[in-house]
Amino acid sequence: MLGISTYKKSINKELKYNSHSIKSLAKKYYDLAENLRNNFKYKEAIEKYLNSILIDRNNYDSYLGIAFTYKNLKNYTKAINNFEKAELINPDNSKIKKELAMCNIINGNFDRGLKYLIQAISLEPDNIDIQMQLALVHELIEEEEMALMIYQKIIETNPEYIRAYIQKATLYMHLDDYLNSAIIFKKIIKIKPDYYRGFLALGICYEKLSNISAAKRYYKKYLEINPLAHDYFDIKNRMKELKNISTKKTNKLRIIHI
Known about the structure:
Elements: H1 2-14, H2 19-38, H3 42-55, H4 60-72, H5 76-89, H6 94-106, H7 110-123, H8 128-140, H9 144-157, H10 162-174, H11 178-191, H12 196-208, H13 212-225, H14 232-257
């Protein structure tokens, strides 16, 4: 207790009992903290941020800085606590809402995360990144229909935004809806012909749909566009297996027709 009392007195001595001096000293500690955080000295930075906050309880920048520092240390509970304090000072900042959303989601509190994402979107209705985050959270909590709806809305308002197409097509794959997935992946490669993963995905979709010739065609295109693929030989072997399957089916058909 004596140590804390002495510490507070030493800070008070630096103040000249006027508002300008308080802000100036708080800014001094904030600048030191920012420099330490930028050099990855997070624990030292926290001490300086706390000094700044102790002097000026309404120091928005220091609350924000210490929140990001705790986030870097993966202490999301303390990050949330300080983002909330920053939010009290600046309640209409979409950046803080988004950070609160992400930290809550990482902490497993999806309801609060969704709440903050919705608030962030209300402040920035045209921010595609926030809309995408909202859809991804709905995926995480297995509200796939809601996620698909958001992806579709993004596609309709931003028809050249490839990421929304990819996420929607991939979600359809996870739902075993290979037909709708294939339809979207075809749109993707039409917009972006060099997106080689789209050809691989189409190969998988058509294989699942038992369209062997189409699957082989898209696998072949995938390897042509991406000859250094890490799975090159796996796909090559799969194409051989599919060739054998299609040959057996053809032979069976010939026997039937005889």
